[in-house]
Amino acid sequence: NAGVTQTPKFQVLKTGQSMTLQCAQDMNHNSMYWYRQDPGMGLRLIYYSASEGTTDKGEVPNGYNVSRLNKREFSLRLESAAPSQTSVYFCASSVGGETQETQYFGPGTRLLVL
Amino acid sequence: AQSVTQPDIHITVSEGASLELRCNYSYGATPYLFWYVQSPGQGLQLLLKYFSGDTLVQGIKGFEAEFKRSQSSFNLRKPSVHWSDAAEYFCAVGRSGGSYIPTFGRGTSLIVHP
């Protein structure tokens, strides 16, 4: 039981390049989330998927797109990377629904945009 | 809208000393409250959570937190800190019903002196 996995762990991009961050969970969770973490800012929600087939914007969605590929996988895409997107990105999952369940986090992807 | 304030950006304690990390929330109804810990280079791990019932909640690694509705607080405590407790601590507040989208505080960095 690996929990939440993320790939890659590190990435360096040049401005304007694109990339996709991958996230998968093996806990049969319904809800999945993408956060970014910046110093002094805590975690800010980029996008989330309450259930398979649905996605919604969070607090800071500009410059990102997401795909809920199936129940296990939730990817985050940067179409044209900008230095402001230099950050640590975390994927999380939870059982979902109306009960307030614990979120389980992946180890993060550290992204540097030059 | 719900919000979380962690007033202390950094806290420094000596090993063996007691610890209290502050968390204040703003939410109109009964909140669901969480404390997460993030070790350097790692994802977030749940320490404890409060949904209802006893307002003093026990968590992992010897941590506890007390929900005080009158003060809108959910402070995290530990009677004797170990060097391995040095990490970033995040308080989060969720809400009942509907999609579960928690709000995180900006975090408190705990430094432990030997």
What does this structure look like?
- With 114 residues, chain A is an all-beta fold.
- Chain A is 0% helix and 51% strand.
- Chain A is built from no helices and eleven strands.
- In chain A, strands 2, 4, 5, 6, 9, 10 and 11 form a seven-stranded mixed sheet that branches. Chain A has a four-stranded antiparallel sheet with strand order 1-3-8-7, with no helix packed on it.
- In chain A, strand 7 and strand 8 form a beta hairpin.
- Chain A starts with a strand and ends with a strand.
- Chain B is mainly beta and 114 residues long.
- In chain B, strand 5 and strand 6 form a beta hairpin.
- The mean pLDDT of chain B is 91.
- In chain B, the strands form three sheets. In chain B, strands 2, 5, 6, 10, 11 and 12 form a six-stranded mixed sheet that branches. In chain B, strands 3-9-8-7 form a four-stranded antiparallel sheet, with no helix packed on it.
- In chain B, 0% of the residues lie in helices and 51% in strands.
- Chain B is globular.
Keyword list:
heterodimer, A: 114 residues, mainly beta, 7-stranded mixed β-sheet, 4-stranded antiparallel β-sheet, 11 strands, 0% helix, B: 6-stranded mixed β-sheet, 51% strand
Q: What proportion strand of chain B?
A: over 45%
What is the averaged pLDDT score of chain B? 91
Number of strands of chain A: 11
Largest interface: A-B, 27 and 26 residues
Helical amount of chain B = under 10%
Helical stretch count of chain A? 0
How would you state the average pLDDT of chain A, rounded? Answer: 92
The share of residues in extended strands of chain A comes to over 45%
Instruction: Give the overall shape of chain B, derived from the CA principal axes.
Output: globular
Distance, first to last CA of chain B? 41 Å
Kindly state the number of beta strands of chain B: 12
Question: What percent of the residues of chain A sit in helical stretches (DSSP H or I)?
Answer: under 10%
Poorly predicted regions of chain A are none
Radius of gyration of chain B: 14 Å
Q: Largest sheet of chain B, described in full? A: 6 strands, mixed
Topology order of chain A in helix (H) and strand (E) letters: EEEEEEEEEEE
Rg over alpha carbons of chain A: 13 Å
- Structural class label of chain B: mainly beta
